[in-house]
Amino acid sequence: MLKAEKIDYSYGDHEILHGVDLLVEDGEFVSIMGESGSGKSTLLSILAGNLRPASGRVLLGGRDLSAMSERELARLRCTEIGFVYQEFHLIPTLRAAENILLPNYLARGDAKEGKKKMAELAERMSISHVLSSFPEEMSGGECQRVAIARALLYSPSILLMDEPTGNLDSVATEKVMTLLSELNRELSLTMIQVTHSELTAQYGTRIVHFGDGRILSDEVVR
Length: 222
Description:
- By secondary structure, the chain is an alpha/beta fold.
- It contains 7 helices and 10 strands.
């Protein structure tokens, strides 16, 4: 379970978030929907522990992220929180397989187990055929599925996504969102995405409408 309580955040004199409360139960797929500049990406960064709120707190499994040291937060992000970016953030000089295995290298994990998990994820996401390819040789949809596989390599308890289909065409968007919806149902993987797309938001189990740094409405969709 992830819980945000009374989250405030400012950048200089500009107030971005205002007393945000959000509860995400295990196994939910929450879409936070809002226009650019609404504060939704800032909220996602705070939920991931990348930013600290000016006031309020975030609890993940009962643990207060605000009370953790930077080292503890870094460890948490390497073991329990997966993050998927709009820009993919793949390393261009590494092949797809190496990009997926990067968390295992950084954590100095078991190489054999890492490769086994990587192969399983690649097959599940239909990217086995691009494992030896560099990012520039792959389509946008393939790059995003590689990025998702990388985020899932260490079996996180929650997956956070910032506009995961923002750089994809409609066909690739449908494939990626269908995959994410299937992973949510089959693995009971907790997911939170921020998006400005109503179509993309509908793949979630809940839609939280966000605007001017506040939650405007919260609806269950499936």
